[in-house]
Amino acid sequence: MTMFMMTMGDDSPPPTAALWAKYVGDEGPESYMKQGMLLHMLYGVGAGAAFAVGATALVLDVGAGVLVGSVLWGLAFGLVLMVGGMMFWMRIVLAMEPDPKTMASFGFFHVVYGVVLGAGIALLPV
Questions:
Q1: pLDDT at 5
Q2: Which residue of 1, 3, 40, 120 could cross-link 16, Cys pair, CB 3.0 to 4.6 Å?
Q3: The pLDDT value given to residue 123
Q4: Phi then psi for 10, rounded to 5 degrees?
Q5: What is the pTM of this model?
Q6: Do 55 and 62 touch, CB atoms closer than 8 A?
Q7: Predicted pLDDT at 126
Q8: What CA–CA distance (Å, rounded) separates 61 from 72?
Q9: What is the rounded CA–CA span in Å between residue 43 and residue 81?
Q10: Which residues contact 39 (CB under 8 A, 6 or more apart)?
Q11: DSSP string of the chain, one letter each residue
């Protein structure tokens, strides 16, 4: 998702750059694009691992041979990340109120992440 966001995004700093600027740096978020993207990528890896472990532990319809179930659970997970990111991280932690266009792209990228995550879990050998 991070690479997709870098390619398709509007070149503005991701919310993780604002997080870095607020808690680690001493400049504005635009100065921490690389750190923000790296942090976002690490979040994505961690979230993907949590999804794989959690979905397996909960015996959800995911994994090899169940592409549709995996994609649907991945989509649901992407939506949960989207809402959590918008409501908790952006509004509460960072005190940001992004414009509707930013929120739409934020939502789109998280939905794509969830779908790709679900498909990846179904199609990649374990």
A1: 63
A2: 40
A3: 87
A4: -100, 15
A5: 0.82
A6: yes
A7: 60
A8: 9
A9: 11
A10: 16, 19, 20
A11: -HHHHHHHS-SPPPHHHHHHHHHT-SS-GGGGHHHHHHHHHHHHHHHHHHHHHHHHHTT-S-STT-HHHHHHHHHHHHHHHHHHIIIIIIIIIS-----HHHHHHHHHHHHHHHHHHHHHHHHS--
**pLDDT tens per residue, range 40-53:** 999 999 999 999 89
99 phi, psi to nearest 5 deg: -75, 160
Give the pLDDT score at 58.
Answer: 85
Q: With a cut of 70, list the residues of the chain below it in pLDDT.
A: 1-10, 125-126
Q: The tokens 């691992």 sit on which residue? A: 49
Q: What gap in Å lies between CA 90 and CA 100, rounded to an integer?
A: 13
Tell me the C-alpha to C-alpha distance, in Å, between residue 79 and each of 22, 52, 106.
Answer: 26, 16, 11
